[in-house]
Every structure is written in structure tokens, then in C-alpha cells.
Amino acid sequence: MKLNEKMLSNLATSFLTPVDKEGWLMKRGEVNRTFLKRWFVLKGNLLFYFDKKFDKEPVGVIILEGCTVELAEEESCYCFKIVFSGPNTAGLRTYVLGTETQQEAENWMKMITCASYDYLKVMVAELQRQVDELTELEKAQRQARVITSPTSRINPFLETPVLLPPKTFSQLHSTFGKEIVLLRQKYNTRMGQATSNLIEL
Amino acid sequence: MMQLQVIFAKEEESYGIFIMRFNEKELSVIALQPCALEGKLSFKTQHLEKHQEDTPKDRYFRLVGNCLFYFRCAASGIEKVPLGAIFLEHCEALQYTDNTFPFSFLLKFKLDRDKQYIFGCSSIQSVDKWVKTINSAGYDQLRNRYDFLKGHMESKTGVRPKLGLISETNNQESSESFTKYVNLIDL
């Protein structure tokens, strides 16, 4: 099968795509069952492997679609396997990879399990569903608020200050005016008493 | 052994062949999975550096995930094993006018400026459909959409969304038996 290899090879070392995980792994050969140390780089659903860390071209790539990850039964290292299966499973490969620690094995297994395009598609669909649900809920809440405001009722048990109807200017003028007239009268009588004691010259 | 390897490398250089191993058989299985779009198209490959182009051929295309497979057309349909696969990452499909095909589009790659593909369709609607589907097929694009939706949910609910997966056993604590599928992944 032909593949756009040059593009993939460039993709493996390009800064355009983020590295999801990289590290040394022991890879068991298909024919020769010994383990070879390879530098693995996971980008999206493509698991590239290099002979050395800073090589420009990968030795190969494992396309992570239609596969599952399982623990392997090797005793020498913490191994896991990438199992490919299909309707006609005969002849499909299982890649056996080994790490040096339990933690590393678990991390790789986790990353590879979540790497496939199919998996990502399912996650996006799920998130989209959640977002749609939330948007619907918000819309319903907003509509509910709009309906209740024109018929809002006053709670008779709440103390509200008694508001008098607002007065017009002339009403205010006459009210204050009366007060002033009274005060002037008082002042005049006081002044009258005071001046009555004085002798007119 | 070393000498043989050197000769092999030189040959590769002269033909411009680059041999990268990949899980070919397994990929053939993927090629027959449910696809986003499929159909018969004519296409030709252009090698820009050498100012060469291959003769146009009729092939049956299937877009599965971020990979565009093509099959040889047989008498009773299509062959079971794909002839080739074009991975669609950091690429751009655009409408194109050429003397080759009446309705066509161009497919070019940021990560390989040498190679270009020109496809011929049966109608302008077909061109439009293929261009749109190819341009939204990339893995990174899907990932960006995921990040955006996740951020949106976080800002609305203040909680990181936890997405569950199928699991055979509820075995989160035991590190001895790591399950086939991961249970809850906090991403």
C-alpha cells in the first residue's frame, strides 16, 4: 500500500504538531522476537518510532485505529501490548512494548487508549451534547424569568414605607408660604415689642 | 551487512524512495470502516520539484477519520485492499481549474511542499462536498474543537467535565490488573 510517507515523516519531527508523549520503549520484533530499544513519539493517532532520539526520519509508524491496549505477560519488564482486531482477525498484528517502570507502562497505556480518531470523535460528540443541553437549559430559564415579571405580586407582609402622592410646586409654595407668614408675624410682634420701648426722636 | 545497507540507502536517495514501516494490514481493515465520504474520483499526483505529474487515474476514494484511502475499481465493485492512503494533516483542499478535469480540486500539504494531488469530480457540488469534508478531517482540528468545548463547559459550570468510557471492571485502585479500557479519564 502506498502512503504519503514524506509528509508523515516530516510530521513526526515537525513543530506544527504537538507531541502527546515521547520516550524510550522496548519494541519486540515481529519475526525476530528480541526486544529493540526505540525512541517513540506519539502525535495524535500516529505512534512514530525512531532508531535514535534526534533522528530526522522515523524507522516506522503504528497507526492507532481499531486497536486496544492490554497488559502483556512478559516477566523481564513492565510490558503492554497494542492489539489490532477486526472482522477477520487472522493475521493482524499485536505490538509488544516494554517500559522500565510500572508508572511509565500505565501512562503509555492511558495515552495510547485515548489516541484514536474514533475515540476523539466520540468525546467531541459527548461534549457537544452536554453543551447543547446546557444551552437549552439556559434558554428555558431566561424565558421563565420573562414570563413571571409583569404579574409580580407584592408581599403584604413586607413593610413598605407609605408614599404620599407627589406635590405640585404651587402646593409646596403655599405650604411653606403659610409657615413663613407665621414666622414673620412672630418676628414682627417681637420687634414691635422691642421698638415700643424706644423713644421716638 | 553494513555495506549492503549503504548501497540500499544510496538507491533510496536516487529514486527518492523513502521506506518507512507501518501497520499496513491493520490499515486495510480501517479502510473499510464507516467513512465520512466516499466516491469515484479521478486523480493525478504532481511532483513539483521535478516538474512531473503522473497520468490521471480513476479510483474509488473513502475518507475514514483523518485518512483518505483509495481503491482500484474492479469489475464487481472495488478491490478489497486499498492501493494507497493519504493522511490528511495540515493540508488544504481548494477548488481548482485545470485542463485535465472539468470539475476539480487541489490538495496540498504544509508538510510536503513537493507533492500535490488534483482530483476530478462529476459535478461542482461534488467538488464542494469533498473540499469541505477534507478540510475538516484533520486530527488536530478535531482536538481543537474538543479543547474549545471543554473550556466552554468549564467556564459555564466551573467543573472540569469527566468523560466516562466503557469499562469491563470498575478497577481503578488495582494497579496489578490494568483493565482493557480505562474507566474515568480526567483529561
UniProtKB/TrEMBL annotation, chain A:
<dbReference type="GO" id="GO:0005802">
    <property type="term" value="C:trans-Golgi network"/>
</dbReference>
<dbReference type="GO" id="GO:0042147">
    <property type="term" value="P:retrograde transport, endosome to Golgi"/>
</dbReference>
<keyword id="KW-0175">Coiled coil</keyword>
<dbReference type="GO" id="GO:0005769">
    <property type="term" value="C:early endosome"/>
</dbReference>
<dbReference type="InterPro" id="IPR011993">
    <property type="entry name" value="PH-like_dom_sf"/>
</dbReference>
<dbReference type="GO" id="GO:0005829">
    <property type="term" value="C:cytosol"/>
</dbReference>
<dbReference type="GO" id="GO:0001881">
    <property type="term" value="P:receptor recycling"/>
</dbReference>
<feature type="coiled-coil region">
    <location>
        <begin position="117"/>
        <end position="144"/>
    </location>
</feature>
<dbReference type="GO" id="GO:0055037">
    <property type="term" value="C:recycling endosome"/>
</dbReference>
<dbReference type="InterPro" id="IPR045188">
    <property type="entry name" value="Boi1/Boi2-like"/>
</dbReference>
<protein>
    <recommendedName>
        <fullName>PH domain-containing protein</fullName>
    </recommendedName>
</protein>
<dbReference type="InterPro" id="IPR001849">
    <property type="entry name" value="PH_domain"/>
</dbReference>
<dbReference type="GO" id="GO:0007032">
    <property type="term" value="P:endosome organization"/>
</dbReference>
<dbReference type="Pfam" id="PF00169">
    <property type="entry name" value="PH"/>
</dbReference>
<feature type="domain" description="PH">
    <location>
        <begin position="18"/>
        <end position="117"/>
    </location>
</feature>
TrEMBL record, chain B:
<dbReference type="InterPro" id="IPR011993">
    <property type="entry name" value="PH-like_dom_sf"/>
</dbReference>
<protein>
    <recommendedName>
        <fullName>PH domain-containing protein</fullName>
    </recommendedName>
</protein>
<dbReference type="Pfam" id="PF00169">
    <property type="entry name" value="PH"/>
</dbReference>
<dbReference type="InterPro" id="IPR001849">
    <property type="entry name" value="PH_domain"/>
</dbReference>
<feature type="domain" description="PH">
    <location>
        <begin position="34"/>
        <end position="139"/>
    </location>
</feature>
